[in-house]
Design goal:
elongated, 11 strands, Rossmann fold, single chain, three-stranded antiparallel β-sheet, disordered C terminus, about 350 residues, alpha/beta, eight-stranded mixed β-sheet
Length: about 350
């Protein structure tokens, strides 16, 4: 079941949000261009990634205005208005200070928040994002490669929104078998008109002038072969004072897919100073075999009725011990061995 969805008031707009986990640090996840708070918990990949984050933080999730469960909007909002949605969600969630995890289109918004609300920003994590969306290759650090990728993205979203093509382009490892589920997620998260609006806003975004003003510890995460060219995160890391750039292998822009464990582990170490060891798939198991010694002679001495009574007492004692020590009876065998019709009693626990 997804966590309880609540609403924060940001001006006239209701912003849907959820809170998961009880870690010592608040972590606000600023999503990419679309999200859906309820549907994301139905995807094991997304749910697994979010649960990892919530295992070491108090994770605050929200849908940006115009997407998911938040209010639709009639016109594009400024970056400042959308950034203020983060403040409204933090206020509603009772968070005085938090680390921000900005994914893709949510990265520039997180940069603006960190530069504006310095006292409320504990740390900044920028994941698969960029400093500017300008389509002028002379002005964009990613050059012609950026123009090509955004053009492909915009064409897919315009012509195929709702069939899963756009999200599949961002996460090639999903394959054709996951396309239908991605299509449902696309349709529920945003309308085609809103998607075009979001893309236009991304292209108009430019936070390069704000980067030197960031005064909190900053981690820049990126995959080496993903859709956003590597020049974009390199520019972020070079212009944010003290920022650390970590490049992970992979081609998926969306961190939930592919090797998502690398992202969660890097974020955990950055926020907590260490990584917990992965859970082991090895367990200690004790197997016990029991046998009635001299069973052939004892069975002959006791006769069939007496022998069966002895077996019943044996089984009762064994099962009492199993229950006390949380054991499990696997199998009970009577071996004829050519000696006594009932033979040897064997029990594996």
């Amino acid at each position: 079941m997804p966590p309880q969805t609540r609403y924060a008031q940001s001006g006239e707009v209701n912003i849907a949000y959820q809170v998961v986990g009880e870690g010592p640090n608040d972590l606000v996840f600023v999503p990419g261009f679309i999200s859906h708070l309820d549907l994301q918990w139905g995807d094991p990949k997304i749910a697994g990634f979010l649960e990892k984050l919530a295992s070491f933080s108090r994770l605050i999730l929200f849908d940006k205005r115009g997407t998911g469960l938040s209010d639709p909007v009639a016109a594009p909002a400024s970056l400042e208005d959308r950034m203020d949605d983060v403040r409204a969600v933090m206020d509603a969630a009772g968070s005085e200070r938090a680390a921000l995890l900005g994914l893709s289109e949510g990265g520039p918004m997180s940069v603006l928040f960190a530069a504006t609300y310095k006292d409320r920003t504990q740390a900044l994590i920028l994941c698969g994002t960029y400093p500017t969306g300008t389509m002028d290759p002379e002005q964009n650090p990613a050059g012609e490669a950026w123009v090509q990728r955004v053009t492909e993205w915009r064409d897919l979203a315009t012509e195929h929104w709702g069939d899963g093509s756009t999200l599949a382009w961002m996460a090639p490892s999903i394959g054709e078998e996951g396309r239908a589920a991605l299509g449902r997620f696309e349709r529920a998260s945003a309308s085609p008109r809103m998607v075009r609006t979001l893309i236009d806003m991304s292209v108009d975004t430019d936070v390069r002038d704000l980067l030197p003003a960031i005064q909190v510890p900053t981690l820049v995460l990126h995959r080496d072969a993903e859709r956003i060219p590597l020049e974009a995160p390199k520019y972020l890391a070079e212009h944010i004072p003290g920022a650390k750039l970590v490049v992970l292998p992979g081609m998926d822009h969306i961190p939930f897919y592919g090797d998502g464990a690398g992202y969660a582990e890097e974020i955990e170490e950055f926020l907590t100073g260490g990584r917990r060891p992965p859970p082991s798939d090895r367990i200690l198991t004790t197997v016990m075999f029991t046998d009635i010694v001299g069973s052939t002679q004892r069975a002959a001495d006791l006769g069939d009725a007496g022998w069966r009574q002895l077996l019943a007492r044996h089984d009762r004692i064994v099962r009492e011990q199993l229950e006390e020590h949380r054991g499990r009876e696997v199998k009970t065998i009577e071996l004829a061995s050519g000696e006594h019709p009932l033979g040897h009693r064997g029990q594996m626990s």
